[in-house]
Structures are given as structure tokens and as C-alpha cells.
């Protein structure tokens, strides 16, 4: 059998808006309070884009940081895969705007729509393309401005989400390690549990849809909660099996940051101890496709990931779409 091509993360970056919205700020907008949000979700604040800021601004900043970290020139980038459901335009891909902004003139750029799992789906596609020999370097970015999709009168959703971007450079290298396992899944029977029900081409925007805010995020939180824990746990076990490793081999687990209670339930299901768990939801809220790569960048920059470490990541979101990935650094 041919030797497997090793694909490594060689650079990471993230960017979030400077503007912060605290729980107390929110309590002045909707009927909520810091105590409810903190105990039910773990969120203390979120970063929210200002009106002049775009998804591609944050994605581009995160990509530039990741490229600098990887010591990689923009011309060397062969692919840009961008996980997002809040692109600058309906079409074309926001990844094309990122390509322009960062000067990655030789890249093929495209968006992947898998909600909160978008970055992991991007890792899956990028790894496959690099292993096929279609290129040597790819940027995989998860970036969202979910604040623009919020119904700011719906307290059950508007307190949860934040804006931001996280990116990595994936690179073909001779050394063993890098991407050791990837699992991706969707279940289209659950679309109604988490979506923007109208405003797409099936039901184009009308004054009635706008008035009813049916073009904004709707979620059946309790149902999503149950599926999220079960599905991410399953995907984590799959990637561990692929790599023939066990949870004891994992040095750091970065789950999607949607709710500390989901994170705790997942960690206890997998028997992951707190010292191996990354939690930053208090600072950012749920940034959808950006949440895992933001955590990854923070962990690397703070020295929490060392060479040789095994890092497990997992995400779950609308679709339903979910997945996990396992890396050796
Ligand atoms: O990233 C994509 C995946 N998304 C997720 O994984 C999110 C999954 N779901 C969740 O994280 C949780 O279900 C939520 C945080 C969304 C909700 O937490 P919950 O513990 O499931 O609350 P609930 O929906 O059962 O609501 C409990 C109560 C309700 O009041 P009553 O009916 O008991 O009087 C809600 O109206 O809490 C009320 N409530 C609030 N109260 C104050 C809902 N939102 C708020 C709020 N502030 N912001």
C-alpha cells in the first residue's frame, strides 16, 4: 500500500471584533439576566461585529495570522476552505473575498456550509485534497457574524452567539503525525430543529417574513442539546478508533463551545478530565464554525499544546451536521 501523505497544522490564528456585549448589556435589550445566562450556558460575554465590519474582515485577519505563524507566503496557498453560514454575500463564496484580501492568488477558494461543524468539514475536505496531491498548503478557516442572523427579541437564542474567526494552515510534511483521524456526519431529518426557516430561495424575503423574523435563527434548544452530546461523543470515538488511540492518549480536548453544560456532559460521557478540556465560551459565546479553531489558536499561543501532543476536537450544529478530528502536533 502507498505510504499515507502526512498533513500537519503548521500555523493558527484568530480574530474577533473588539466590541463586547456583556450579559448585563443583554439584560437591557431582552428579558434576561447574567445569572440565567451564566448558569444555563457558561457565557459571560460575546464579541459583536460593528456595522461596518464584515465576515471576510475577521476571516482574512485570522488567515494572515495563521500564515505568519506557519511562515508561509500567500502565493504558496493552494486552497482556502471556509466554514461559514453567514457569508458576506449569498454568492459567491466569501472565501473568494478572503483570497483577494490576503493575496492568495494561486488558491482555489470555496465556502462550506455545515454550520458549527463547518471548520471540521473544511479540515476533512482539505486533508483529502492534499492527500490526493492536488496541492501542498491549505488554509481552513471557520468564520461567522451570527449577530446579523439573530432575532434580538428572542432571548432563547440571542444570548448564545458571538462573532469571530479562527484559521489554520494545513501542510503536507514528511514527518509522521498531523491529521490522524476525521469523522463527519449529517442528519437532514433534523433541519427544523436549528435553522433560519425562511429568506432563502424556497421562501424569498417578504415584508411579512421580515416582520415575523423568520429569516433569523430558530432553535429547539433542548432537542439540539441531547443530539449534540450523543453525536459528538460518537464522532470522537470514531476518530480515536481510526488512529488506534484511546482517550488516555489525548492531551487536550477542544469541543465546540455552545454551552458549558453540553461540554461537561460530553466530557463526562467520554471520561475526559477537566485539566484536558479547553473551555473559552465565557469570553466568546458560541461562534459556530469559528469556535474550535479559536480554541486551537489560544491553546497553541498559550503553550497548552506542545510538540507531540494529541489534540481531539469535535463540533455539532444545524443540519444536523457534526464531526470530530484528531491531530498529533
Ligand atoms: O451550536 C449549535 C448547537 N447549539 C447548541 O448546542 C445549543 C443547545 N441548547 C442549549 O444550549 C440550551 O438548550 C439553551 C441554552 C438554548 C437553553 O437552555 P435550557 O436549560 O434548555 O432552557 P429552556 O429552553 O428549557 O428554558 C428554560 C426556561 C424557560 O422558561 P420557563 O418556560 O421554564 O418559564 C425559558 O423561557 O428559561 C427561559 N429562558 C430564559 N430565561 C432568561 C430561555 N432563555 C432565557 C434567557 N434568560 N436568555
Q: What is the number of helical segments per DSSP (H or I, 4+ residues)?
A: 11
| Strand adjacency order, main sheet | 1-7-6-4-5
Oligomer: single chain
Number of domains: 2
Ligands in the model, by name, code or SMILES, are: oxa(dethia)-CoA
Rg calculated over all Cα atoms = 19 Å
Write out the CATH superfamily name of the largest domain: Thiolase/Chalcone synthase
Q: Can you identify the CATH class of the largest domain?
A: Alpha Beta
Relative strand content? 15-25%
- Shape descriptor reads globular
Order of helices and strands: EEHHEHEHEHEHEEEHEHEHHHEE
Q: What is the number of beta strands?
A: 13
Distance between the termini: 25 Å
Which class best fits the helix and strand makeup? alpha/beta
**Unreliable spans:** none
Amino acid at each position: 500500500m502507498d505510504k499515507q501523505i502526512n498533513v500537519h497544522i503548521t500555523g493558527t490564528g484568530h480574530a474577533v471584533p473588539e466590541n463586547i456585549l456583556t450579559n448585563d448589556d443583554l439584560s437591557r435589550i431582552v428579558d434576561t439576566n447574567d445569572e440565567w445566562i451564566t448558569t444555563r450556558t457558561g457565557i459571560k460575554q460575546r464579541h459583536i461585529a460593528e456595522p461596518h465590519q464584515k465576515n471576510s474582515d475577521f476571516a482574512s485577519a485570522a488567515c494572515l495570522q495563521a500564515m505568519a505563524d506557519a511562515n508561509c507566503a500567500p502565493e504558496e496557498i493552494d486552497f482556502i476552505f471556509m466554514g461559514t453560514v453567514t457569508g458576506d454575500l449569498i454568492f459567491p463564496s466569501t472565501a473568494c473575498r478572503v483570497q483577494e484580501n490576503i493575496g492568495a492568488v494561486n488558491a482555489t477558494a470555496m465556502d462550506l456550509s455545515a454550520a458549527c461543524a463547518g471548520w471540521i468539514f473544511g479540515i476533512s475536505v482539505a486533508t483529502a485534497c492534499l492527500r490526493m496531491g492536488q496541492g501542498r498548503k491549505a488554509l481552513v478557516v471557520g468564520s461567522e457574524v451570527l449577530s446579523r442572523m439573530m432575532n434580538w427579541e428572542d432571548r432563547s437564542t440571542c444570548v448564545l452567539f458571538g462573532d469571530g474567526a479562527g484559521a489554520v494552515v494545513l501542510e503536507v510534511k514528511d514527518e509522521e503525525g498531523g491529521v490522524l483521524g476525521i469523522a463527519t456526519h449529517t442528519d437532514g431529518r433534523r433541519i427544523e430543529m436549528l435553522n433560519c426557516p425562511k429568506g432563502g430561495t424556497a421562501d424569498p424575503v417578504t415584508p411579512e417574513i421580515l416582520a415575523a423574523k423568520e429569516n433569523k435563527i430558530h432553535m429547539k434548544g433542548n432537542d439540539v442539546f441531547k443530539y449534540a452530546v450523543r453525536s459528538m461523543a460518537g464522532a470522537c470515538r470514531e476518530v480515536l478508533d481510526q488512529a488506534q488511540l484511546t482517550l488516555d492518549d489525548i492531551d487536550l480536548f477542544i469541543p465546540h463551545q455552545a454551552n458549558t453544560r453540553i461540554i461537561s456532559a460530553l466530557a463526562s460521557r467520554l471520561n475526559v478530565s477537566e485539566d484536558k478540556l479547553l473551555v473559552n465560551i465565557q469570553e466568546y459565546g458560541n461562534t459556530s464554525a469559528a469556535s474550535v479553531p479559536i480554541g486551537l489558536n489560544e491553546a497553541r499561543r498559550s503553550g497548552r499544546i506542545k510538540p507531540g501532543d494529541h489534540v481531539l476536537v469535535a463540533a455539532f450544529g444545524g443540519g444536523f451536521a457534526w464531526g470530530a478530528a484528531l491531530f498529533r502536533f
